[in-house]
Amino acid sequence: MFQHFSILQRTCLPPGIGGCPVAPRILSLTGIKWKVMPEEKKNFSAELKKAADAAAAEAGIVPPALDIVQLNKGDKVGTWKISKKLGEGGFGAVYLVTDMTGKIEGEYALKAEKATESVRVLKMEVFVLTELKKANAKHFCDLLDRGRISVYNYVVMTLVGPSFHDLRKVYTDKDKQKFSLGCACSVGIKCIEAIEELHSVGYLHRDLKPGNFAIGKADPRKVIMLDFGMARKYIDAQGKQRAPRWAAGFRGTVRYAPLSCHISRDQCRKDDLETWLYMQIELTRGNLPWKSIENREEMGRYKERCRGEGIKELMGGCPKEYVDIMLFVDSLCYYTPPKYALIMDLLKTAISVNNLVEYPYDWEKATAAVAAGGPGASGPA
Fold it and tell me: Where is the Protein kinase domain (predicted)?
């Protein structure tokens, strides 16, 4: 029988407050009310400001959009030549480039952002990718170059293939937009490997979603984690885990955000895993039951409800091992080191007991059909 933990019981609490169980100073989802112990009040002003900033964001008071760096075909950035724009978004712009010196063959991705931006996304990207490269991590882009030209900063990294978000749109049933179960479980294992690698170098991602995982450009079975603009180092200079802040602004994408975000608690390794699980469920069944909810507070209550009477709404169409994964993730506290291998073993069990086949992946099948000119030959090769 599924055991229902309340959101207060599962919330990761700072040391000295009883660890992970219920504690009196917690944010309520119903009204965002604070209960602060007297000894805390003198240290609470900064945290209240952060909470106010989060409330402003929820009310629609958002910072101005990034001033996108516009480069044209043929422009030169250091030793790199612009071939075309690949895309742009909240992170800035991405361009396809080649090395003009001839020392580096092939095409690469160049990200650029104005040096005047208050939030330095590329700076965090460089920090994270540099540490991952030192650790020989296998689920990430390789950082080739970085620098500043005039009024903007840039980084150059390896290209990737389509994101999970794009793969769902192109290579799956247009109505269901889900991966086959064998494919979903297999890529889920690789996502957990990537999360473990990221955590091992001391960083949280804080915005895991289908758009931030992609397959390799040359290897369709390789899974690559992307975009570290919202990442945060959770280890201090002495290698110890940072103590949680009393309140933290909302970080991430609301649909996949962990319960901690909905009550303005600081995120930990557990929260990356919870966010991944929501993504994993969506890839498996095609949607999340709170997809149509727009109010962030209401969505948080719905996520909590899915821990109890709403469990079937969330897990319908998923193997029972997903419930075991959620129970495990929900049992973790702020300082608890996750057992990543346990999650991967549960996904492997789901593959085994359901007699699933991992390979070829769904997009490999579709590509083969396109090459053969057979059924499913619509869409890019």
Answer: 80-357
**197 within 8 A of 140, measured Cβ to Cβ:** yes
308-324 tens-digit pLDDT: 999 999 999 999 999 99
Alpha-helix runs per DSSP H in 201-266: 259-262
Tell me the binding residues. Answer: 111
To which H or E segment does residue 54 belong?
helix 45-58
* Rg, the chain, Cα only: 22
Cα dihedral 242→126→143→63 (10° resolution)? 110
Annotated binding-site members for ATP: 111
Does the N-terminal peptide bond of residue 319 adopt cis geometry, omega within 30 degrees of 0?
no
For residue 93, what is the domain's CATH number? 3.30.200.20
Would residue 276 count as lying in a domain? yes
Place of tokens 């290579």: 171
Angle between helices 181-200 and 269-285 in degrees, nearest 10: 160
- Residue 232 and residue 248 in contact, taking contact as beta carbons nearer than 8 Å: no
Distance from first CA to last CA of the chain, Å, rounded? 46
Residues assigned a catalytic role: 207
Domain that holds residue 151: 76-158
Q: Report how many domains make up the chain.
A: 2
Return the percent helix, strand and coil in the chain, to nearest 5. Answer: 40, 15, 45
Mean pLDDT over 139-164 rounds to 94
The closest of 108, 107, 122 to 153, measured between CA atoms, is 122
- Take residue 128 and report the two structure tokens written for it: 């994270």
CA pair distance 371, 46, nearest whole angstrom: 59
CA distance 344 to 223: 15
Going from the C-alpha of 96 to that of each of 25, 83, 87, 177, 275, the distances in angstroms are: 50, 5, 9, 29, 30
> What is the domain-level CATH number for residue 221?
1.10.510.10
Give the sign of the dihedral formed by CA 288, CA 170, CA 211, CA 322: positive
Residues 221 and 277 in one domain: yes
Res 14 pLDDT > 90: no
Whether residue 230 sits in one domain with residue 177: yes
Q: Is the pTM of this model over 0.90?
A: no
